[in-house]
């Protein structure tokens, strides 16, 4: 799988010979992005939506490089070439001190939203279990089991559900 480092990407962006594609979710793209990037989120990834300029290098990026690697695999099945992904993603870009566009009015991150919802459900289940009926403890156990499953499988159903909420669809 072809990768590009942040410094090489910066040089390409300065020369204007690169098409930059962000594969994160709309809320993430809205909150912070590399200037000039186009959003094609991995959750709704359609290779036909990726800008295709044969004279330019297409660079995919996400927060750490995991999702952009997955997007690149999907693109490779279509026969697309001249495509790489940013090694280390936006984190590596920022570590090099390169600028990003930050929107302070964007929704809070999906991870924080998941923490708020899961934590609220656990507290609610525990309080109702202690004062109303012990059957409400099932709610806390269900959420805890879901968090374990999310950690083991590296998938988060709650995060995917929250990503589809209207406030997270604003770009």
UniProtKB/TrEMBL annotation:
Keywords: Membrane, Transmembrane, Transmembrane helix. Residues 14-102 form the Rhodanese domain. CDD domains: RHOD. The chain crosses the membrane at residues 114-136, 142-163. The keyword Cell inner membrane does not apply. This is Rhodanese-like domain-containing protein. It comes from Euhalothece natronophila Z-M001.
């Amino acid at each position: 799988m072809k990768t590009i480092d942040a410094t090489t990407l910066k040089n390409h962006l300065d020369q204007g010979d690169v098409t930059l594609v962000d594969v994160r979710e709309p809320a993430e793209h809205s909150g912070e992005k590399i200037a000039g990037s186009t959003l094609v989120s991995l959750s709704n990834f359609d290779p036909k939506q990726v800008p295709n300029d044969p004279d330019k290098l297409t660079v995919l990026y996400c927060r750490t490089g995991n999702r952009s690697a997955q997007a690149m695999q999907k693109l490779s099945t279509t026969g697309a070439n001249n495509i790489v992904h940013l090694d280390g993603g936006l984190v590596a870009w920022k570590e090099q001190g390169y600028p990003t566009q930050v929107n302070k009015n964007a929704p809070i991150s999906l991870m924080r939203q998941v923490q708020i919802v899961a934590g609220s459900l656990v507290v609610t289940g525990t309080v109702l279990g202690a004062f109303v009926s012990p059957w409400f403890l099932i709610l806390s156990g269900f959420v805890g089991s879901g968090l374990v499953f999310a950690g083991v499988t590296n998938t988060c159903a709650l995060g995917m559900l929250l990503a589809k909420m209207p406030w997270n669809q604003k770009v």
